Amino acid sequence: MSELSAIQSGFAAALAPGGKAGSAAPLFRGDAAGVTRRLGIYRGNAQANALKALGAIYPVLAQIVGTEFFEGLARAYAKAFPSASGDLNEYGAAFADFLAGFEPAQELPYLPEVARLEWRVHVAHYAADHPRLDAARLATIAEDDYAALRPVLSPACALLQSPWPLARIWEVHQADFSGEFKVDLDAGPSCALVYRPELRVCVSALSPGEHAFLASAGRGETLGEALNAAMAAGAGFMLDAAFTRWVSDRVIIDFKMP
């Protein structure tokens, strides 16, 4: 290991939760007591920033479990999954997996699924921008060729299937929600769509047919294949209405020609 690598490794170990600043003191100039004290302050700031980052990424989770419990979760997560990047936007990717195995959180079995949704919302914030699809382009295509088109989904989109009503849990915990605060956790499996029509990321519930269509499109399948998947998943799927809505909301941003 090079001298620089040794310094970097020692510094990182001193900043980790439970790290001992004194062990890294010899790597720095100055008296050991002063270096240890300064490293302790730096470690506290780093951990506070990590907590703030998790709170910003998982605000619904924080509301569900409360501030004190969430802070405990954040500290335990930091020990189990120390940051591997200098970009705090990448911190917290394994939170859902962590929650699934965290014993104190087992009384709320839907928490890992909520975390999975919130991470996808976070990723959608930073996805590349795309202009809205000009639906008039379809008028230039022969109707017989429609089935061979391949819809392209926005990189901000994510599809989730869950045993819990994720979209409803998300909805009632938004700051602008004004309806009845009620979630039926026994409602059965659900499908949710994460998308970003403008600056704000949205989450909406999907019917089985809608989910099947978008999942097919996400796999690069044709419009005909996606429609067949939607119809097989559930009756009542209306392509015209759904396609118009998804184009308007920048869910479908393009289509590949046959």
Please sum up the structure shown.
The protein has 258 residues and is mainly α. Helix content is 48%, strand content 10%.
Relevant terms:
258 residues; mainly alpha; Outer Surface Protein A, domain 3; 2 domains; three-stranded antiparallel sheet; two-stranded antiparallel ribbon; 11 helices; 5 strands; 48% helix
Low-confidence stretches: none
The helix/strand series, from N terminus to C terminus, equals HHHHHHHEEHEEHHHE
So how many helices? 11
Content of β-strand: 5-15%
- The CATH class of the largest domain: Alpha Beta
Major sheet, described briefly? 3 strands, antiparallel
Widest sheet: strand order?
Answer: 2-3-4
Overall pLDDT score: 88
- CATH domain topology of the largest domain: Outer Surface Protein A, domain 3
Using the alpha-carbon principal axes, give the shape.
Answer: elongated
Q: What is the CA-CA span between the terminal residues?
A: 54 Å
Describe, in plain words, how this protein is organized in 3D.
With 258 residues, the protein is mainly α. It folds into two domains: 3-108, no CATH class; 135-256, Outer Surface Protein A, domain 3, CATH 3.90.930. 48% of the residues lie in helices and 10% in strands. The chain has helices at 3-15, 21-24, 32-57, 59-65, 67-80, 95-100, 111-125, 166-172, 208-218, 223-233, 239-248; strands at residues 150-153, 158-162, 190-195, 202-206, 252-256. The longest helix is centred in the N-terminal third of the chain and has 26 residues, at 32-57. The mean pLDDT is 88.
